Amino acid sequence: MADVMDKIVSLCKRRGFIFQGSDIYGGLANTWDYGPYGVELKNNVKRAWWKANVYERDDILGMDASILMHPKVWEASGHVKNFFDLKRDCKSCKKRFKDADLKDKNKCPECAGELTESRPFNLMFETHAGAVSDEASLIYLRPETAQGMFVNFLNILDSRHPKLPFGLAQIGKAFRNEITPGNLTFRTREFEQMEIEYFVRPEDADKKLQEWIELHFEWYLNYGIKKENLRKRPHGPEELAHYARACTDIEYNFPFGWSELEGIANRTDFDLKQHAESSGQDLRYFDDKAKERFYPYIIEPSGGVDRTVLAFLVDAYHEEQVKDDTRVVLALDKGLAPVKAAVLPLLKNRPEIVELARAISKDLKQHMVAVYDDTAAIGKLYRRQDEVGTPFCVTIDVQSLEDNKATVRDRDSMQQERISVDALKEYLLEKLTI
Ligand code: GAP
Description:
Blueprint: H1 2-15, E1 18-20, E2 32-34, H2 36-55, E3 60-63, H3 71-76, H4 79-82, E4 84-89, E5 96-98, E6 119-122, E7 126-128, E8 138-140, H5 146-150, H6 153-160, E9 166-175, E10 190-200, H7 205-222, E11 230-234, E12 246-254, E13 257-268, H8 270-279, E14 285-287, E15 292-294, E16 297-304, H9 305-316, E17 317-322, E18 325-330, E19 341-345, H10 351-364, E20 370-372, H11 378-388, E21 392-396, H12 398-403, E22 405-410, E23 416-420, H13 424-432
Parallel strand pairs: 3-9, 19-20, 19-21
Antiparallel strand pairs: 1-2, 4-5, 4-6, 7-8, 9-10, 10-16, 11-12, 12-13, 13-16, 14-15, 17-18, 21-22, 22-23
């Protein structure tokens, strides 16, 4: 199974999904850059998530808060005190290890050197705001997007007057100084989160937690993740984050084992109370019917963009034998596929064919992500598009000049259909449902 990961890493690099960060300098470990196809896939994942969680609902509002926040935010949230891993250093090779990852707590797993006692290391990245680099200018890169929504709770109440239950949604970068990152984009120090903070009456929290777990589980299935590769795993009390009363992870069966895609937690009223106390602001919600003021509980579905993209890539990847050839296909959901249609002229030395193909591609580009490619023979062009998950290839041949029809090839079935050039756009849009 592990070699599936090698194949994904290789495809990502070869075709331009994901590159090693700072590659020409030998790479900066565990940083990854999304290439032309990767950025499209990532944007499509974010758009699909936003559509389901913001646009299709009446009770969720979008937000985009700053990465840099007042340092008091992280004291109040408990991250300064509680957001750490226990780690040990090797006295010989100086490498650092997470306590939890070590089988022998005294011996370095790489050079067999002696290890230090375990010490807590906070996961937050520190930096300094302004010209002077002293304690007063110390700030953090946010380790979760969530706090941006809690500190804006009052602004949202005052500007939009939402009624419980309601939520805030945000997609954005988060940073953690992980010491054991790995598995491509699975665990990195810089990553993107897709988070919802859903405010509910305390007595509704358990029910709403279950609803969000089911809803988000379904979302992955709707976008093509195979059911057998997805599961829910409730946290035991010992693994709950400092702010959570309950949490269930949605896990994906990655080639390196079942691992967390998203956590859905009951954060209770912990964050609002902490920020109310720390800021001196009244962050209670006023129920004007019951005439009561109280702190709502918060249900938090929190997923990672990069992990979700990786799960979609892994789940979509397959190889099949076609005659003497192995066909590599990314059977991505059509809505997530980076490119929707590739227009391919069968003979590039016939100017009329090239002209018609270019005109079709130009027209399609107004309605979907479409590409034109004439840089290889047709068999190779098909394979190239299969590998990046393009649902449709549109081929223009000599006959097209006579009957004004194009051949549309379906990625998954490889079935071909002749479609009138005039009806092509509607035909594809209907199949793509975008
Ligand atoms: N606000 C809650 C929170 O941040 P978390 O379980 O620590 O909870 C939520 O993170 C999600 O963010 C995870 O399920 C994962 O998808 C993603 N994530 C967390 N750390 C990550 C890392 N180092 N690299 C990539 N994604 C990460």
